[in-house]
Amino acid sequence: MTKEVILIYPSYGDLVTPAEGILEPLCLTYLAGYLKKHEVPVSILDLTADNISLDKLAQIIKEKNPRIIGIHANVPLALKAAQVAKIAKEINEEIKIILGGHQATSLPKETLETFSCFDIMVIGEGEETLLELVKELEKGTPDLKKIKGIAYRESDKITINPKRDLIKELDSIPFPSRELINFSRYRPPTKAYYSKPFAAMITSRGCPFYCTFCAYAKGVCRLRSPENVIGEIKELVRKYKVKSILFYDDTLTFDKERLIKICDLIIKNNFDLKWTCYSRVNAVSPSLLEKMKSAGCELISYGVESGSQRMLNIMKKGITLEQIEKAITMTKKTGIKTSASYVLGIPGETKESISQTIAFAKKLNTTFAHFNMITPWPGTELYNRLLKENQISENEWKKYAQKLGMHIPTVDLGEMTTDELKKFPIQAYRKFYLRPEKIWELAVSGLSFYKIKSYLLAFKALLRLR
């Protein structure tokens, strides 16, 4: 019989503050659901949500004595993941340590070269790959050469196998196994627009667009059917009494007809739900927004990125300033709150373009705004270009493996040093939020004092500069 597989989400530690919330690890609950479907025993350890220290983790690993441990890590969590792997190897060096997530996908060879504690990298989507790995590793003499979508170390040689095709039918994937996590411990980044119990959901995978700074799957977007999405919402409402949902899709509004059907089903089922989502400015219409509002949408977060058309073109956003203004105006008219994210410091940025972005943000006057310093994540077009031009080193990612990176300038832009760039996000926040009219707007917004305080705590966390 297959032994229990342990899936671990490392602790963020001091990389985040409580005000920034804790989202459920969908990456692991999806994997667990797939393994369970194929009768593989599995458990999940979320070191942050469950407040598990490294000493306690060692005790759990000793008691469970697993053969296989899977760890998820994006780049900022690479060192934390390595700590977990080293503890497991010290207990039993025969445990196979599998790493998945953005770190493994974008830097499989570099990660294996840097960390001897990892045995196998899962590249890309993990459901099918992990299941095949578990079955193969249970054999006395596993043959890893036949498993697509992995990199591994064998006799001090690193092998990267052929890529695995993306899962086409998302409806074939079981719902996340939330029964394996302590669901009540997860909380949203701000209580201003969420009520507990709170859940995160994803109704699609991939993105059809090609922004230069984005590390996620580009060019292909696969969608769950409206019926499948509603099936999961029913489970969340009935089993977990969920009151609010964050749809974590890159662009929930990508397929307007599908979203209208989802909204119709939410209304038909009379779910008492409030929800938020992400969207592109050129993927909404008045009729769609009205339907979303009727179905409980409270807030839409738009990737505005810049107030300079020249910078938007450099980023390959595929949108115009006019489209941005139109989308924000339409959304406000519908009564849905708006949030806009901006990214500063991409090569080509100047003091003038940053001033244009801050002025544009004030003009749009979205309910909330977030200003982030660009981080050239491995796997992005931006990262590869900077690497090719020798503006960053091959070890650049190791800097990001120590911090979240959202306020860490990495590229000298010529007329601005990285030290000068570091000041711009905080300036942008101050100029946007500390306007008398903005302060008054939030004060009379209808939000309770408790909810405004909750949001300001999250806002304060976003201002942390390192």
Automatic annotation (TrEMBL):
Keyword rRNA-binding: no
GO terms of molecular function: 4 iron, 4 sulfur cluster binding; catalytic activity; cobalamin binding; metal ion binding
SUPFAM superfamilies in UniProt: Radical SAM enzymes
One Pfam family per UniProt: B12-binding
Residues of the B12-binding domain: 11-144
Keywords per UniProt: Iron, Iron-sulfur, Metal-binding, Methyltransferase, S-adenosyl-L-methionine, Transferase
UniProt keyword Transferase, yes or no: yes
Cofactor(s) the protein requires to work: [4Fe-4S] cluster
Boundaries of every Radical SAM core domain copy: 193-412
CDD domains: Radical_SAM, radical_SAM_B12_BD
Organism domain of life: Bacteria
PANTHER family: ANAEROBIC MAGNESIUM-PROTOPORPHYRIN IX MONOMETHYL ESTER CYCLASE-RELATED, BLL1977 PROTEIN
Name of this protein: Uncharacterized protein
